Amino acid sequence: MDKHHSSENNNGIDRRSFMKLAGAAAALAAAGGGCKTQNNSGIANRIIPTDKMTYRVDPKNGNKLSLLGFGMMRLPRIARRRGESLPDTNDLDQEAINELVDYAIAHGVNVFDTAPVYCKGFSEKATGEALSRHPRDKYFIATKMSNMRPPQAKEREFSLNIYRRSFEDLRVDYIDYYFVHSVGSPQVFKERYLDNGILDFLFKEKEAGRIKNLGWSFHGDGEFFEYLAGAYPWDFTMIQLNYLDWGRVTGRANIDARRQYEVLTKRDTPIWIMEPLLGGGLAMPHFKARERMVQADPAASAASWAFRFAGELPNVTTVLSGMMFMDHLKDNILTYSPLAPLSDGEREMLLGDVTDIMFEKRNINCTRCQYCMPCPYGIDIPEIFTHYNRCLNEGSYPEDNQSPDYKRARRAFLIGMDRSVSPLRQANRCINCGLCNPSCPQRINIPLEMMRIDKFTESLRVEG
Question: On the CB side of 395, how many CA atoms lie within 13 Å of its CA?
């Protein structure tokens, strides 16, 4: 029998032991805590070196960038009762953010990526406060022109105000890396950047030195990607890249990370990576996929496999990760201090068995970017999708009512839903208005998925 599929492997981890771990994770999810931690393999007890970070030299300017970049889209929040935090309330935990940033810099991380729309509009301010406590030459700041909300997106002054506020909130007089944010289609690009003269303005700001490097981040159509890659003298480009998107187009987001990587490589464009974990989903993959990883290396976290895959590509200059917890930060630093490239067999496992399992298990491809929020009807869209995916991945998805495990899975799903999402913010509140769909970079049909989850959830409740 192939050692990859045997019930026991050379590392002494048998299926019964693994399933005990999966069951414990499912119980944690039912208690409302399943998405708070990665499997970090006892990271608290491991030595995290301060001088081993892997760096990549930006060929456009000679900057030495840490391979691990700190994405400031998901930051620690002050604990609040469900539903108490209003859309315009700053509930970020600045003390915790400062601690994470200090630790990152002390361990070699020097890339920090934020945007005006992150964390309900408060990420830049929190990032600026944390970083301003360190010498300016210790870090590179990246932020974005996030003029994505119609109809203001077309207005020049609206975009200029976004730009000016970034300097104020970040407490800087120049920005190292500035993005034309979330480019997707010719029409939207024309309205947001060409008709109002904003792209010309940004290139002039680069000439003036207030922007050191100008690039773009992409979510959208493949043909437009290839056009835009060569249409302007970009200094860098950010793409979504992970082993699940490598060479496979799902139809939901039209992402072929391999093709995009190859296009940029041919043009000698430095590549920044976003969503190496698909919003955390690859840190908690389906338990059958996780079993394959454990067979290959019991000590490695699921996240580390994804970061090694993204980071070993030679034209990648930095891989961004949103790290809300110290354990996440430590695990990712350890993965890149230094980077250990995948063997041929390990790469084959990720792109073969693991990816096959992940595609088969019907996860909703939500990355928790929160661009769909706030919902006018109060629905917590990202958290609903997170709970659904978590239960599916951890074996608490009550699909077969003839299964011996059905009653436990049903209870875990329902209790976990009510603990993760306030009853007033669940899927049954969706009226199919569709206002969220244009904002989703993954092209999820959000109302359709909400109706499906609502129908499934209600069917479970009726059985009780």
Answer: 20
CA 200 to centroid of chain Cα atoms: 30
* pTM of full prediction above 0.85: no
Tokens 């020049």 found at: 156
Which of 10-14, 90-94, 284-288, 335-339 reaches the highest mean pLDDT? 335-339
Count Cβ neighbours within 10 Å for each residue of 330-366 and write b for 16 or more, e otherwise: bbbbbbbbebeebeeebbebbbebbbebbeebebbbb
Spatial CA neighbour of 358 closest among 222, 219, 246: 246
pLDDT of residue 46: 83
How far apart (Å, rounded) are the C-alpha atoms in residues 436 and 415? Answer: 27
Q: Which residues contact 76 (CB under 8 A, 6 or more apart)?
A: 92, 93, 96, 97, 100, 324, 325
Cα 268 to Cα 60: distance, rounded to the nearest angstrom = 9
The single-letter code of the amino acid at 402 is: Q
Q: How many CA atoms lie within 13 A of 145 on its CB side?
A: 30
Task: Measure the CA–CA gap between 444 and 447, rounded to whole angstroms.
Answer: 9
Residue 228: burial class (beta carbons within 10 Å; 0-12, 13-18, 19+): buried
Residue pair 171/132 in contact by the 8 Å Cβ criterion: yes
- Beta-bridge mates of residue 143: 178
CA separation for the pair 244, 421 (Å, rounded): 28
Q: What is the mean pLDDT of residues 248-260?
A: 69
DSSP 18-73: HHHHHHHHHHHHHTT-TTS----SSGGGS---SS---EEE-TTT--EEESEEEETT
The radius of gyration of the chain from alpha carbons, rounded to an integer in Å, stands at: 22
CB 118 within 8 A of CB 142: no
